[in-house]
Design brief:
Immunoglobulin-like; 557 residues; 3 domains; disordered C terminus; mainly beta
Amino acid sequence: MARGSMNRRDLLKGALALGGGGLIVMTAGGEVVAASSKLSAKNMPTPYTNMFRRPPVLMPAAEGVDEQGPFQKYRLTQKLAKASILPGLSTTIAGYNGIFPGPTIRVKQGTRTEVRICNALSDVNTLNGRPFSTVTHLHGSASLPQYDGYANDQTKPGQVKTYKYPNWQQGRTLWYHDHNHGDTAQNVYSGLAAQYHLKDPYETAQLPQGEFDVPLVVSDVAFNADGSVAFEPDGNAGFMGDIIMVNGVPWPKMKVKPRVYRFRVLAASISRSWRFALSTGDPFYVVGNDAGMTPKVNAVKSWRQGGAERYEVLIDFRKYKVGTKIELQNLSNKNNVDFANTGKVMQFEVVADAGAADPYQIPTTLDLGPQPYANRGAVEVNKLTPDMATARRRLRVERKHGEWTVNGETWADVEDSGFKRVFGNPKPYDVEIWDLVNESGGWYHSFHIHLIDAQIIARNTTSDGKAHPWEGGGKDVFYLGENETVTALMQFTTGDGNVGGRYMTHCHNLVHEDSDMMIQFAVGDLENNNPITMDPAKAETEAEMPAAYAASYPLGT
């Protein structure tokens, strides 16, 4: 049987693997595996009883300036650890430095980073019985192919790989997560996900900072009676849990001051999509997207968000009296599987602020600053126009003969070609139009294109045929709802020293991705920067983390 093929019998077997908690739910598109946690009443978390927490910020192990400019070096260890997520129970997670989400990395534009990642996980992933190999993708970064998290560039237990990131792009919310082929859903679901903030002077000057710049990693999960995570390991339809977590805390409550807050919302779910709204009906102000700030600020009552998309929104808490409680809700979308409390996300409680009144004025437009590498032909994504395009390509996502495919092909076809088969081969700095077509009936797909930022210039399901109000600015993930077509205008900007190579494009419903719903394109010569052989993982032979660094960020905290 092909990797992506699965029949109803297999799905039912997977449901039994959930300890009786698995549900095969019929949606308009077919069967989706969902799980209601098998927890006793005393172990089931109650919405809005646990306090909100922010992931810690990772400190560099070394930093300095060399002939190429400023640099910082970081160290991360992927390892198993016990987490207190549920009342009265502990849960084993796989996390960067043993926590979920992993620590946030914050870097200034123009500062190169090296992130040394050691795989100290067990030899076997208990969710699927396979070796716990990993691949780390910095999602949203214009990295070289060998540092982009290519799905077959594995780091096995006991190995280490140092990823190099250029950080020349405009400020944005990125995230790093596992991308190991065939295991991405399980590995991310187990905890291998975290945010990475690229800072620049323009977003720093125009958007809230510090205490009022808040990362939100939103996910859904199900648990077995003993507190272990419940997951159907072989299904290719999708997986949705009944417990919503924000930064690893089920339905947290957050105390907020009467000020304007900026929230960096990452949908880290493996299959579920979201539609966020405030219980008051008040608007969010969308100021950022996958590729950073939006040139126009749009006020929306709700927005739709698929897995891996990032939205930056402002919420103005100045209008509420002290003691007011506001819910961040999930109105959900077609073909999601919803449970009793999946309509809740988190709660805000307004508290007194001893300081002066917040003078911040919510902007209507934002200055994104200059486009890096404009002297090499790079164009800021919002200034791309269709007449610049040198090619137009059609990319169809569909289910074919029981397999998830992209243009009728799968990653198995890429592997069988010796990793030479490509969907397209633009040159560096070429501009193209891609029509992303969802031909899979009732299925939704969150589609990701590596390397690029793109502008959505058309969507077939809106009243005016344009992007939704929240979709302004640059995108690298595209919500393809049921029978939707998105037209994306993109430039293949590689940056200084990057002559291109092979990059993946795939569905970010990670269960679909693991079922081979992934192909690749190449920028320039296919042989440049071979993503598997150019800088592979090596055995862990280096000394342990320096004592000074370990003291500044103790592992497992």
